[in-house]
Amino acid sequence: MNGKAFAIGLRDLYFAEMTAEGTYSTPIKLSEALTATITPNYTITTLYGDDRAVAVANALGDIDVSITTSDLSDADYVMLMGSVKNTDGVIEDSVDDVAPYGALGFKLPLEGGGFRYYWYYKGKFQPPALTHNTKGSGVEFQTPAITGKFVSREDGKWRARFTHDTGAASPVATGWFTEVYAPTV
Questions:
Q1: pLDDT of residue 3
Q2: Would strands 145-151 and 102-109 be described as parallel, antiparallel, or unpaired?
């Protein structure tokens, strides 16, 4: 692929809840992915001396995440928002709900074959803003978009990225969604 790999899609959104010990549960596949927008927010500061810029330093702040899926099932909603489904099968959102920290993973198909894989290690989602439209002369799909904030873990890592072309099989690629990526020891 001569060093260039152009992404041409988005597939397989997964979420894995993070435990208090910093480990992850088994990743759960969410509904079909429509969009994912990831915006790392950096603070960039310039040091001036002798009447000119002499150095630039940056620091990662939080990471804004917005995903749109074909649906947000009750099970996905409860998992992502920290809500509870009562014995009647009804989800009653509460001010006491606490969304869990977790990792978000997905893959991008590449134009020349293969995939680019991602895990964002630590973040929380908030309930979606809802807009509903009446059905007029045609059908319009109404898909949920949820937003969240991600940060680095205690070890400073905030993302894993892996590109695998169509060459030899890769244990990293085949195991990407069975657990949140951790380096081979």
A1: 63
A2: unpaired
